[in-house]
From TrEMBL:
The lineage of its organism: Bacteria, Pseudomonadati, Planctomycetota, Planctomycetia, Pirellulales. It comes from Novipirellula aureliae. The chain crosses the membrane at residues 27-48. This is Protein HflK. Keywords: Hydrolase, Membrane, Protease, Transmembrane, Transmembrane helix. It is found in: Membrane. HflC and HflK could encode or regulate a protease.
Length: 334
């Protein structure tokens, strides 16, 4: 066995008779073209996914941008294709990081430095925010700037520090969040267009905005006091809105009643005047007749209200037979 091993080690490859492989030549004639054909097909056919676009490079130079679908290119490394997800919404996080993020550029390791900011009134605040963006022009995104993800991150941090630095700490933490988001979005898109990153900024959203940890308890107490103040103001406004309209309604009701009574009295007075003028006109035409008619009408109204009256002669001495007392007693018993 050692002799055979030595013979294998001392083979003279230069004196091998390749004619011994004549039986394999037909096989090699078919195998080599088949291998070349497979390599050709593998290096010339590619697929662009539905949410992406392909950027074709020929010898490292940009040629064209292709849409989704089955595509062909020059094989054997002449053309190279970079797939860019143009329809996928990407995001970057500042001041914090989501675990198990698929995008390595989604958050940074310098989270403490990112969220530490100074407001316009020289107060400190910790600001956490995210930006959501899309790749609008793949050629600019790939070739105009060397590291577009890092560049976008630096621009976003610079813009947010500028916007926060123009406002007070109360505006940053409480009432000015929406305005900050809108201003940051406009300025960030302007800077992205200026640097030709080929990106479209969809949203800038503030997350946790708090004062620094040493002063956070005091700030929470102040904020709680302000909330209680607002609550008391709202309660007082509610009572005001409940009592004042009621009092206004009652006052309006009394005013309308008084106006109605005044109108009634005026109308009655005008009616009396009209009636008196009518009587006066008739009186001037026939005074005696008018006096008699007025007397009769007055007696007709007054006499029924006087009750039962007995009129006798002043010379009469006995009036009992005239009173019919028995009949009155019977009526009283009934």
């Amino acid at each position: 066995m050692s002799f055979e091993r030595d013979n294998r080690r001392n083979i003279d490859w230069g004196n091998i008779d390749w004619g011994r492989f004549e039986d394999f030549r037909p096989f090699l004639v078919w195998v080599v073209p088949a291998i070349l054909l497979v390599i050709f097909a593998y290096t010339s056919i590619y697929t662009v996914q539905a949410e992406s676009q392909g950027v074709v490079l020929r010898f490292g130079k940009y040629v064209k941008t292709v849409d989704p679908g089955l595509r062909f290119k020059f094989p054997f490394g002449v053309d190279r294709v970079s797939i860019v997800p143009v329809k996928r919404q990407l995001k970057q996080e500042f001041g914090f990081g989501t675990a198990d993020a698929s995008d390595p550029m989604q958050f940074s390791s310098e989270q403490v430095e990112e969220r530490s900011m100074v407001t316009g009134d020289l107060n400190a605040a910790t600001v956490e925010w995210i930006i959501q963006y899309r790749i609008r022009e793949p050629r600019l995104f790939l070739f105009e700037v060397r590291d577009p993800g890092d560049t976008l991150r630096d621009i976003s941090e610079s813009v947010m520090r500028t916007v926060v630095g123009d406002r007070t700490v109360d505006e940053v933490i409480t009432v000015g969040r929406q305005e900050i988001e809108a201003d940051a979005l406009a300025q960030l898109q302007e800077q992205v267009n200026k640097y030709q990153l080929g990106l479209s900024i969809d949203q800038v959203q503030l997350k946790n905005v708090n004062p620094p940890l040493p002063v956070q308890p005091s700030f929470n107490e102040v904020n709680q006091a302000q909330q209680e103040r607002e609550k008391m103001i709202n309660v007082a406004n509610g009572e005001y809105n409940k009592v004042v309209p009621r009092a206004s309604g009652e006052a309006e009701q009394k005013i309308q009643a008084a106006e109605g009574y005044a109108l009634q009295r005026v109308n009655e007075a005008e009616g009396d005047v009209s009636r008196f003028n009518a009587v006066l006109t008739e009186f001037l035409k026939a005074p005696e007749v008018t006096k008699r008619r007025i007397y009769i009408e007055t007696m007709r109204e007054v006499v029924p209200k006087l009750g039962k009256k007995i009129i006798i002669d002043e010379d009469a001495s006995q009036i009992l037979p005239l009173l019919q007392l028995s009949t009155e007693n019977q009526r009283g018993q009934r």
